[in-house]
Design brief:
Layout: H1 7-15, H2 20-36, E1 46-50, H3 56-64, E2 73-75, E3 82-87, E4 92-98, H4 100-103, H5 108-119, H6 124-143, H7 146-149, E5 150-155, E6 168-170, E7 177-179, E8 184-186, E9 189-191
Helix pairs in contact: 1-3, 2-3, 2-6, 5-6
Amino acid sequence: MCMEKTPWEKAIEFHGHVCPGLATGYRVSEIALKHLAELRSPDEELLAIVENDACGVDAVMVMTGCTLGKGNLIYRDRGKQVYTFGSRNANRALRISVNGATLHKPNPEMAELRSKVFGGTATEEEKAKFQLAQGRRVEQILHMPEEEFCKVEQIDFQFPSKARIFPSVQCARCGEYVMEPRSRVRDGEFVCLDCFEDYTRGW
């Protein structure tokens, strides 16, 4: 009998491995879908704004259906575990901020172990110890009370327009095609950003 994979199993399969970062994105998405009373978005019913490019974003895509390709996943490089989710159906949006004080308590022993594992100098015993600790951390993230894990706020939110499909123009320099709004004019011809020479005098 073929058993349907759980959402968590699907997130692991998509990402490629289990880690605390993936668990963080999974938990954030689970909380957002519950508060917004939404299911996975087949089109652009949901919008997600992520403020990091870490492992958890993969779980956000799997869980919510918000992806770059559909235009309903927006990446803002802030380096923060902060996520905004909006429901076009309900015209509501949430900002979820993960509690770093709970998840990133100083642990010199684990910091040293992590350094060895990622530096390629860890023994097999140290690798096993690290994986065990990571597994415990994943379980903690997945099951800790919501109020300890994050702060959830309903916010006023201006939804961006839905994704548009634009015509492409051929770059006069390299010959490759580029989306019209991303093209520039150089010597009176359309060129792509790679072939465009920006002109600036410091302002």
